[in-house]
Amino acid sequence: xxxxxxxxxxxxxxxxxxxxxxxxxxxxxxxxxxxxxxxxxxxxxxxxxxxxxxxxxxxxxxxxxxxxxxxxxxxxxxxxxxxxxxxxxxxxxxxxxxxxxxxxxxxxxxxxxxxxxxxxxxxxxxxxxxxxxxxxxxxxxxxxxxxxxxxxxxxxxxxxxxxxxxxxxxxxxxxxxxxxxxxxxxxxxxxxxxxxxxxxxxxxxxxxxxxxxxxxxxxxxxxxxxxxxxxxxxxxxxxxxxxxxxxxxxxxxxxxxxxxxxxxxxxxxxxxxxxxxxxxxxxxxxxxxxxxxxxxxxxxxxxxxxxxxx
Length: 310
Fold this sequence. Notes:
This protein is mainly β.
């Protein structure tokens, strides 16, 4: 038995949630052939792979069909509906209309004196005609994609300072809102950092003034349909030792000797052969007050004044 339903009215971008093919069986086995076995009447659904015409198709000239059944029903009762789940097949038919050649219903094992009869699309009682029930959703079903780019794994943030959280969020229609959360299992800090409309991609955050080692930033992005995507940053730390209000920078990357002195000129610490990049540097783990950083190479030396306030 061949059967085909027109699914072209379902939008190609719809999300098919379920599809059920229902056939009304009114005769089995012994009611068709003497010696038939109604207890061996499993029926299977196969996808057809070629065109056919209702007016000319026969069992002998039917087109090819997939060898693997997509659904099966072992019901042996008569005068009742037999249901077959064909969700994946209908999904493909909706997304690729040119693959809809319908279904073939047959016995997986075809032996003599076995049969079943179903009501057709021309049957006088319309309620007993074959039906394909498809449940689907339309509209935007795609969630935004989010990538948190700052902070990064292993980064150490300074408590009390401003830090720019960064992320990339994209959506097939558009990101309409975002929310930023602070995650830590060892801190009682309120998790929600900020929630607002739009998608700026950056947010200036005042880092909590406490030492925490297991920190992450979670960014959630939403579209107008309510779909949500999210991403977490790599694990970073927060240090509350010495909040730096003045940084020191270097003109070029080189191996330096670094000496830290207090306001009276007394040496607090010294480090030799330190590879420093030509960027801003923070002075950590020193007492409060005014300090000087002496940075030297064999030929040159500079002194930077920093103020450390707890």
